[in-house]
Structures are given as structure tokens and as C-alpha cells.
Amino acid sequence: MAKLSLMFENKLMKEVPIGARPVTIGRSPDNDLAVDNLAVSNHHARVYYEGSRLVVEDLDSLNGTFVNDLRVERATLHDGDSIWIGKHHIKVDATADTALPFDSGRKAAAPKINETMVLDTKVRRDMLQQAAALGERSQFSPGRLKMPTLVVLSGRVDQKEYVLTNKLTVIGKSPMATVRLRGWFKPKVAAQINQRDDGYYLGTGSKIPSVNGAPIQGPVRLNDGDLIEVSGIRMNFIFRE
Amino acid sequence: MLTKSLEGDVVQIVSGGVTDVGRVRTNNEDSFRILEPLNLFILSDGMGGEAHGEVASAMAVETIVKYCSDPDEGTDETGVTLHGAESDHWAPETKRLRNAVYQANFNIYQSAQKHPEQRGMGATLTVGWINGTKLSIAHVGDSRAYLLRTGGLQQLTNDHSLVAEQVRRGILTPQQAEESEMQSVLLRALGAHPEVDVDTEEVDLMPRDVLLFCSDGLTRMVTEPEIAGSLQAETVPMAAAQKLVDLANDRGGLDNITVIVARLEDESKGWFSWLRRDPGKKA
After folding, report:
1. Which of A130, A155, B7, B43 is most buried by a 10 A CB count?
2. β-pairing, B10-20 with A199-204?
């Protein structure tokens, strides 16, 4: 697997592997390669795979991104290239076979931890970064935040769209419902949506909702574009950029 | 205590809590408190060598009790830095609860600084406070709050653990997280730093809702469908809490187990209320 090595005056500052997700470079500490220098923009550039090609892309940085000596907006990278950002440069190693501390997370290679412990900020960031280099899909990835949204297709409700902002969203006639149903004989709580770590789950209320035409058996994780039907209401669940 | 729902129904809140050392540990580092007059439910899971986990969790609980029951507490400068200019929409009680958690964090941190033997002690803290129909939650760590409503169990808190963060980032599936040996690694806890990020949440409650607060000693041993089943089968809160503790112990009781159950019982005498009477209810 390819890796990037952040160098300052021929001193190795940090190495990161390049996985399925882009490696971000910038001054802000949320970058995979955080470069603490005022010449570097907060989110300066990123490096990622496009098919089998490794690509660097400048993110409208103030002082520019250089590959070898050439200022680029976007360029294909080759083994041995250097990306220059301010006074730092990043060596591209497209052949390296980097050992990673997490083998996609099945069983962590770390010793068994029975006692609860708290990670300090630096260790935490490193661990999450290494792990993030392997992750591919994420509904909650920072940067391109996607808002979970219910778009009403038909039925009597008080709005056309609802952005889900709470841990719990109630669909029903109750005055505390987010998606407020109208009409006689509508249940107070027809269904509920619970935000959990890995996504949004639709659960039953006093009705059994359907997802894409099939009545749910228990809480069901919603995917982008799912059709929800409950108590005479049809809605699409989408992630909106 | 009585509270009133939005529809005007009178709702009686009944609650009970149980804490148990489990089958493996020799000391119980969990602490909890139910303040019935305030409808305040506090649960904390301590960590740190010797007996210091107990010190930390007790300190967390005591700070919340003091802060929420004394109207003068926290109205002046208490030495706690409040995070950011939070132009937020939260109810005053929710903000107060969050400030109480900042204070608890600071007290634990300061104590650990003063007493070198307490270095490294910390605690989780999950607090629920019901005012009218609104439940305010403040939360740090991997203890949890759940809501059982119309048979479905909804998780009201996010764990601040490494594995949960990896699930949120799409690196682990929830199943992989459950099998991970890194489950005990927390990203946030009280006492580690002078400041802490506190999650807050508000939920509008309805008659017949059931709230559960628990330490990870329960959720690592007992599945969510089992928790939902126990809460539905046993309507006396104290008995339900004991049943869940027993279940966790039957599975090995690897950690301290603490469970608080609070039920909102519909006391309204309106039309048809006799139809909704719970046949198993013991007054």
C-alpha cells in the first residue's frame, strides 16, 4: 500500500498510509497530515486514489501545492514524487507495503484491555487517523456533512421536508412529534427514528411502518433513498449534502 | 412525582435503581442517585486504580445533586470555563445540567491534581432530568440512557468509546465493535482534563414511556431486545432493575452493573382510561 511521508528539512515528521479514503493535508488539526505552519491553508490539499492512479488535488490553497517544482491544481503522482506545501514536503512512496495497526478492525492487534482507560487527545487522534485510512464509507465523515432528511411524497403532514437533528424523531399526531400527522384516527406515535452510531434506525410505534414496500420486523437501518410508508404517509429518507 | 403531559394527562413517575459489584470485580466503582422530588436520575461509572474509581463516580454524583438542587449553585463564577458562546436552543434545565457536568468534571480533575495517588481517576456520567414533559440529558462516557416507547428501545446517548467512534466513522460494524477487545477505551470521561465536551439532548416524554439508565456492565452482557423484553415484562421499576442486574450476572457479570428504571404512568381519569389500565400494575 502506498504511503505519504511528511518531511521538514529532511527530517521525517509523520507517515500515513493511503487507503480507500483521501489523505487530507492542511494546518487544521483534523487533517491526516497536519502541518503547523502559517504558509499552509487549513485544508490545503488531499491525496487519493482514482482507480489505480494516485492523485493530488489542491483545495484552493492560498500558497499553492507543488509537485516536484511545478505548481498544480490536480496531478497524477508517481513513486518518488515530492509534494511541496510551504516549507514542508511530502514524499510519495507508491510501492510501500505498510503494516497497519488495525486489520480492518476485526481483532485489534493491541493487548487486551480490561480496565477502562481514557485516551489522551494525541493518541486518540493518531489511532483514529490510522483507522480512518482504512475506512471507506461513512455517513458522518466530517468535511462533507450530510443531513439526514425526510422528504414527504404524499399524505397529510405539517411540512414537506424534515431534517433529522435529534437522537429521536417521532412520526405521529402527538404535539411533540417532529413529523406531525393530521387527520382523524392517526396514532400519537406511528413510528420513530433513532440516530445510532452507525446510522438512522426506523422503529415501530403503534403502527408497523414499511421500508421499500416491506413491513419492518424490528428496527431497520435506513439507507439513502429508502421509501418509508406509515399511517397513510409516504416519505423518502435521503442524505442531503 | 407527578408531572403533566402535553395533552394534559397527569403522569406519575415511579422509579427504582440497583447497583451490583458483579461476579468478577471486588469493588463497585459505579454510583447512582435518584432524587424523586426533582425527577433527577444520575449514574456514574468510575475508573482508576485502588478505590479511586469509587471516589470519582461518587464525586460526580454529589456534584450533580448539589448543583441541581441548590438554586444558588453555579449562578456565580465557579471557576469552570463554559465552552464557547453557546447560542443554543436548549431549555434552561438542560443548560443547567450541562453546567453541572462541567463542574463535576472540574471537581474530579482538581482532586486528582491535588492528590497524586488519585492520578488517572475518572468517571462516566449520564444524567436525566424531567421537567414537565421534557427530559434533559447530559452525558459523557459509555454509560447509556434508553427510552422504551410502544415496545421499541431507543438509545438516547452516544458512547464516547473508541469503538463507537470507529462505528460512527464507518470503520467498524456494530457487530465488530461488540467483539472488539478495545471496548474499554474511552475517548471522553470526566476528570481527564480541566474541560470536557458534554453531550446534551432533550426528549419530549409521553405517558407510559419507560426510561433506563445503565452502566456498561449491563449493556456488554445483555442484548437490547432482552432489555426491552424485561422492561415490558416487569412493570415495577425496582424489580425490573433487579431483574436486569440478575441477567447480567447470569451471563458472567464481568463488570459492575448499575440500572435505573423510571416509568411514566398514566394517571388520567379521562374517557376510556379504564381501557388502558395495565392489568399487571401493582400500586
Report:
1. B43
2. unpaired
Residues of B in contact with A178 (CB under 8 A): none
With beta carbons under 8 A apart, name residues in chain A contacting B174: 196-198
Residues 6+ apart with CB under 8 A from A25: A31, A32, A33, A35, A40, A44, A45, A46, A47, A83, A85, A90
pTM of the model: 0.72
B24 touches chain A (CB under 8 A): no
Roughly what angle, to the nearest 10 degrees, separates helices B224-233 and B237-250? 140
Interface of B with A in 190-209 (CB under 8 A): 192, 201-204, 206
The string over A26-51, giving b where at least 16 C-beta atoms fall within 10 Å of a residue's C-beta and e elsewhere, is: bbeeebbbbbeeeebbebbbbbbeee
Q: Does B180 touch chain A (CB under 8 A)?
A: yes
Minimal C-alpha gap between B76 and chain A (Å)? 30
Is-contact B125 B87, C-beta < 8 A?
no
Indicate the residue of A116, A135, A176 with minimum beta-carbon distance to B169.
Answer: A135
Write out pLDDT tens, residues A35-48.
888 788 889 999 98
Look up residue A64 and give its three cell numbers: 499553492
ipTM: 0.81
| Nearest Cα residue in chain B from A188 | B206
Q: Is B8 on the interface with A (CB under 8 A)?
A: no
Grid coordinates of B78: 465557579
| DSSP string computed for A105-151 | TSS-SSPP--S-EE--HHHHHHHHHHHHTT----TT-SSS--EEEEE
How far apart CA B123 and CA B58 sit, in angstroms, is 9
Dump pLDDT digits (tens) for B117-165.
Answer: 888 899 999 999 999 889 999 999 999 999 999 888 999 999 999 899 8
